[in-house]
Amino acid sequence: MHPLLIGFLPSYGLMAATALLVAWIWFIRGAERDGLDPHEAGRIAFWTVVGGLLGAKLGLVIVDFGWYAGDLGRLLSIDFLRAAGVIWAGVLSGLVTLAVLAWRAELPLGRLLDAVAVPLPVSQAIGRIGCLLAGCCYGSSCALPWAVTYHSAEAHDQQGVPLGVGLHPTPLYEAAWNVLVVLPAVMLVRARRQRPGEAALAYLVLYGSGRFVVELFRGDAVRGLWFGGLLSTSQLISLVVAPAAAVAWLSLRLRQRASQPSTSRPDGKSDAASDAAADSTPPASEPWEHPKNA
Length: 294
Prior knowledge:
Layout: E1 4-6, E2 9-10, H1 11-33, H2 38-63, H3 65-70, H4 78-82, H5 87-104, H6 109-117, H7 119-134, E3 148-149, H8 153-159, E4 166-167, H9 170-192, H10 198-215, E5 225-226, E6 231-232, H11 233-259, H12 272-280
Antiparallel strand pairs: 1-2, 3-4, 5-6
Helix pairs in contact: 1-2, 1-6, 1-7, 2-5, 6-10, 7-9, 9-10, 10-11
């Protein structure tokens, strides 16, 4: 693979920048379609990205706390600055940042979360192509026809990827899952959502499920392993986030069903007065939207 594409330009850095640009543009357009101010959406997008990047780095420090605590100078090293960090930590910290900003600006959180949920799988897929090129997040040994083999000494020195050995292309596995499964499903849910926020919850459920499976084929240990190597850091997070998001999604649907008034009489006959009253009843406010924007 090619850790450096053009001279000193790192392939991962280029793909990460491309991913952020694509997500930024897509998010602002999606927010605008939902009736939100594009300038305000751009401000929120900027700080959400900052929060996500810082969260990903913090996750890396937490996972390898002993390593960094032994020499705080490593926090200023080129390797640390170049590392993406823990992606799950970045996603969650970015979402928390967005939620805080939306609350302070009195903006509808559910619609903002749905606007960011659509470009997330695409940006993550682009980033994973960068991982494949750089040699990070590599897979375990693989004898299948689609195995990848690294020969770059620089990739080995920087990422520790084995050379001359067939490996599972785990970055491609995750990229394919995000583009072929997560993205279409999130777009479908957003188009048919009954309440704002459902698309974001669908993303958390599907990405978490896919990420858990992909981790089974990873070969690098720097991502953090627990319980004697039984689970990785991302698997532990997925085990918490995906079920929690599924429960929240189900709760939203049940609340929507409960908020719909009955339009039939006990004897089963249609009641025109009840139908008219139901039509004039305003929709229930979203549980996570500011009252001013509900």
